[in-house]
Amino acid sequence: MKYASALLAAGLFASSAAATLSPIVTYGNAFFDSKTGDRFYIRGVDYQPPNEAGETIDPLADSDVCGRDIPVLEALGINTIRVYNVDNSADHSDCMKQLDDAGIYLVLDVSTADQAISREYPEYSYNEVLLQHVFATVDAFSDYTNVLAFFAGNEVINSVNNTNAATIVKAVIRDMREYISKQASRTIPVGYSAADVSENRYQMAHYLNCGSDAGARADFFAFNDYSWCGDSSYTVSGYNEKVANFANYSIPLFFSEYGCNLVQPRTFTEVESIYSEKMLSVFSGGMVYEYSEDTNNYGLVSVNYDNSSVTERSDYTYLQAEYKKTANPSGNGTFSADNDISDCPAYVKGSWEANNTLPALPSKASSYMTAGAGTPLGSDGPSNQWTPDETTVDTSALYTATSTAEAESTADGSATATASATETMWVVPSLAVLVSFLMAGAVGF
User: For the chain, what are the domain ranges?
Assistant: First the structure.
């Protein structure tokens, strides 16, 4: 069943545009296509092919790499890729168009090795350098309607003893959501990708969805999961327990990585469960790790650098077959529109040490909200990995870029935020507006 009339009345529709794909929006614990009103299920692959030397590259800045890989991804039967690392100063227009033409959305991590939340010193890494990089990355990608969402962090908490970093993750989510509301032409979901750490994954999910400040709560939550190995099952893998644990979760949930490789080749029999009615009441799909073969032996394809081609491995063939035979459920997948927000996890020394009072936006980053982030600095930008021992940090390039943006904004005679407001494609309504419309009998969710 489609929900176009309800989404239209609520203001969730995108305006017509030249792009093939329309923005994806969140409502309740699900994603929806803002143009058709259909529920959107993520069928994806994690995509970060290195160069021949094994070095990390920005795959979306190289038209030849995209031309090599996107047809292979399209033939696999996916609708989404995740990219972990980009250079925000590069030109991504050609690759983003290739993805759009292939019907593929992008979920993008905004961090890099030099600009990310530190596990060791999270509070010191939360500074204007990090936020300039994050906001500039948002600027570089926000106009592409096939950008599905942003990850504010990936596996920042990766053990039982660094949960204090969750406070900074939530602060960055808050800041990204505010920046997008003021500087982007549309709302783009912001969330987090959690590590496969059972000791605190559940607490992290609820921490990012709790509290009275709606602006600080995530738009979705995702986690990496490798519990289905070989010819497993819905119960043996523990998928049934995950569904039960998150039955009342109020925002979209999906696997940001899956595909255990302890048994090879991977036959991906979990696909049938992931896209079944018993899971889609809670989960919105997932993304397989990963596209290209590396030393960790998770690749769906092997890259032939001599002739710029790829060879499909058996894992690719099995995944393609599973996607082909597994259709999405008809209708809305019994999603929930009105689950309550989460209760904040209790502070427990040595187990869960996140603070429910978030730090204020760094004062030197406040101008970004009105003037924009300025020139993206890419791989040449300064690192935000400050430590307690550092007394001086060279941020001259950062402030030069910011000053330029402020000057341009002033010269234009109007704030960037004002321009963004006039160009907004759609806005997210209050829950009360949408619920009142639905209660009037326009459509039955």
Answer: 4-325
pLDDT digit string (tens) for 224-237? 999 999 999 999 99
Its pTM stands at 0.86
* Distance (Å, whole) CA 102 – CA 80: 10
Radius of gyration of the chain measured on its C-alpha atoms = 21
CA 4/CA 225 separation, integer angstroms: 33
C-alpha–C-alpha distance, residues 445 and 443, integer Å: 6
Active-site annotation holds for 120: no
318, burial (CB in 10 Å: exposed 0-12, middle 13-18, buried 19+) = middle
Q: Is 249 within 8 Å of 208 (Cβ atoms)?
A: no
- Name the β-bridge partners of 348: 352
**What torsion, rounded to 10 degrees, do the Cα atoms 362, 141, 34, 100 define?**
-160
Say if residues 115 and 130 touch (Cβ distance below 8 Å).
yes
Active-site hit among 74, 123, 155, 178: 155
pLDDT for 412 equals 40
CATH for 4-325, among 3.20.20.80, 1.10.3470.10, 3.20.20.70, 3.60.15.10?
Answer: 3.20.20.80
Q: How confident is the model at residue 333 (pLDDT cuts 50, 70, 90)?
A: confident
Of these residues, 52, 123, 241, 257, which one is catalytic?
Answer: 257
Average pLDDT (357-380) is 95
3-state secondary structure of 59: helix
Spatial distance between the Cα atoms of 303 and 297, rounded to a whole number of angstroms: 13
Look at residues 187, 130, 155 and name the one whose alpha carbon lies nearest to residue 361.
130
The yes-or-no answer on residue 312 being catalytic is no
Tokens for 366?
């406040």
Structure tokens at 176: 């990204």
Burial class (CB in 10 A: 0-12, 13-18, 19+), 262: exposed
d(CA 20, CA 378): 28
* Distance between start and end Cα atoms, the chain: 9
Tokens of 244: 């039960």
